[in-house]
Write a structure and sequence with these properties.
Strand content: 5-15%
Keywords: Membrane, Transmembrane, Transmembrane helix
Number of strands: 6
Strand order of the largest sheet: 1-2
Radius of gyration: 22 Å
Number of helices: 2
Helix content: 40-55%
Largest sheet: 2 strands, antiparallel
Number of domains: 2
Structural class: alpha+beta
Distance between the termini: 34 Å
Shape: elongated
Length: 118
């Protein structure tokens, strides 16, 4: 196991990385549906998920305030992207541009919302 230990910058101890897995949904007879994907890791001594960073991330990140703030921001972004796509499709006189642009704007807004909250 030489070389598999890393230094925790919080407690200054050498540790073997411990993986945190997603939970999934409870199924029948104790089985779980989905889940089991690695989502993070933590130091087994101080239980910090930020063992490799010198500074803690902002406490606002992932908070209820940021989740509520993401709703109007994603709606504004969707309105901007949809307006640009609509004007572009009218200018080019193409329904394919409108369809592709709407799909891309919905996907882009979804990714922005996920990035902003997480």
């Amino acid at each position: 196991m030489a070389g598999s230990s890393v230094l925790c910058r919080r407690c200054n101890r050498w540790r073997v990385p411990r993986v945190i897995y997603s939970r999934g949904l409870p199924g029948v007879n104790g089985w779980r549906i989905g889940g089991g994907k690695p989502i993070s890791n933590c130091c087994p001594f101080c239980l910090s998920e930020y063992w490799d960073e010198l500074e803690e991330p902002s406490p606002l990140r992932g908070s209820l305030f940021m989740k509520l703030l993401s709703i109007p921001l994603t709606l504004i972004l969707f309105a901007l992207l949809f307006g640009i796509v609509l004007k572009l499709s009218v200018w080019l006189d193409s329904s394919e541009v409108l369809l592709a642009g709407n799909i891309l704007s919905v996907y882009g807004v979804y990714r922005f919302g996920r990035w902003f909250v997480n």
